[in-house]
Amino acid sequence: MADEQTNGAAGAAEQGKQAQFNLQKVYIKDASFEAPNSPTIFNEQTTPALQLNLAQNVNVLGEGVYEVVLGLTLTCTAGEKTAYLAEVKQAGIFSFNGFDARTQDMMLGIYCPNTLFPFGRQAIADLVQAGGFPPYLLQPINFDSLYAEQLRRRQEQQPAADAVDASFEPSGDADKA
After folding, report:
1. Three-state secondary-structure class, residue 125
2. Is residue 78 part of a domain?
3. Is residue 150 part of a domain?
4. From CA 95, how far away is CA 77, in angstroms rounded?
5. What is the tens place of the pLDDT at every residue in 59-74?
C-alpha cells in the first residue's frame, strides 16, 4: 500500500514535468467586409471567382506565451468587378511549457492555425452571408504542407544568407585606400 502511494506521488511529479500546451483565448482581432459594387452586383449573371489569401503572424507576449493571428482574406469577383472582400484576423493566445524549440515552432506553425481556422471560417461565412451573398464555407486547409513549404523556404534562404555573410570579409587593406 505504501509502495502504491509512493509510486502514485512519483507519477504525479513526473506528470508535472511533462510538456504542457494551453489555449488561453480565441478572439477576432480584426474583421471587415466590403461590397463596393452592391447593389448592382446582385444582378450580374457571371460565374464568380474566389481567391483566398492566408497569412500568419506570431507575437511573443511573455515567456512561453504567444499570440497567433491567422489572417483570412476572401475576394470574390464577378467578371471585372469585385463582388465582395471579406477579411478576418482570427487570433488566439497559446502557452507552451517544456517543449523543445523545434516542436514549439511546429506547433505554432501547424497546430495553432489548425485550432484557429474553424473560428475564422465561421466568421468569414457570417460576414459573406450578412453582406447579402450566398453563404460560403471555406474548405479545410492542410497546414502541415504549408508548414513544410515554409521550412523548405527557410532552409533555402539560410545557405544564401550564410554565403553572403561568408563572402564579405573586410580586409585590412580598406584603410589604405
Report:
1. helix
2. yes
3. yes
4. 39
5. 999 999 999 999 999 9
